[in-house]
């Protein structure tokens, strides 16, 4: 009488599969967290770019930058830009060169490593009247990994 071959996986095959899943998870989870933080930072960067655009228009119309050093309300009053405050705890836009500074808040409850950091965008006016905008990597307290590209 022929005996049917046993069906199923051996213990070593199951252990190899579990080890492979563990290795993949150890790589994927930190990358997922970093990408989640970058996605939430996009909201902050977009708000800064709204203020940048409105500031450029203000400069073109008035030959000077606005002074929005007090609050979100002064930014809305001076520039007509309503900055969403969901991920930003404070924002200022002052000076010459013009500096837009945003303090990050509420990015990640499980990983609060960047809450309270600051992102700075600086605008300078050239001799030809053109405004050049650049992210300030040296003054920003945000980890350079998360800073937007130039």
Instruction: Please indicate the percent range of residues in DSSP E strands (runs of 2 or more).
Output: 15-25%
Total count of helical runs of at least 4 residues: 2
Would you list the SSEs in sequence order as H and E?
A: HHEEEE
Net shape: elongated
CATH superfamily: Glycoprotein, Type 4 Pilin
Query: Could you say what the CATH architecture is?
Result: 2-Layer Sandwich
Major beta sheet summary = 4 strands, antiparallel
Compact description:
The chain has helices at 11-62, 72-79, and strands spanning 88-94, 98-104, 118-125, 131-135.
Task: Characterize the structure shown.
The mean pLDDT is 83. By secondary structure, this protein is α+β, with helices and mostly antiparallel strands. The radius of gyration is 25 Å and the shape is elongated. 40% of the residues lie in helices and 18% in strands. The protein has helices spanning 11-62, 72-79, and strands at 88-94, 98-104, 118-125, 131-135. It has one domain: 2-Layer Sandwich (Glycoprotein, Type 4 Pilin).
Secondary-structure topology with pairs:
Elements: H1 11-62, H2 72-79, E1 88-94, E2 98-104, E3 118-125, E4 131-135
Antiparallel strand pairs: 1-2, 2-3, 3-4
Highlighted features:
Glycoprotein, Type 4 Pilin; 18% strand; 150 residues; 4-stranded antiparallel sheet; alpha+beta; elongated
């Amino acid at each position: 009488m022929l005996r049917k071959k046993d069906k199923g996986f051996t213990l070593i095959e199951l252990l190899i599969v579990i080890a492979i899943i563990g290795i993949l998870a150890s790589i994927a989870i930190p990358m997922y967290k970093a990408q989640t933080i970058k996605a939430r930072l996009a909201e902050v960067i977009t708000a800064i770019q709204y203020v940048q655009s409105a500031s450029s228009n203000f400069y073109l119309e008035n030959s000077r930058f606005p002074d929005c050093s007090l609050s979100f309300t002064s930014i809305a009053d001076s520039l007509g830009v309503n900055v969403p405050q969901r991920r930003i705890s404070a924002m200022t836009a002052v000076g010459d060169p013009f500096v837009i500074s945003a303090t990050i808040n509420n990015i990640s409850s499980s990983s609060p490593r960047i809450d309270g950091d600051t992102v700075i965008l600086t605008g300078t006016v050239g001799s030809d009247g053109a405004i050049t905008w650049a992210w300030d990597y040296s003054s920003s307290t945000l980890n350079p990994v998360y800073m937007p590209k130039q």
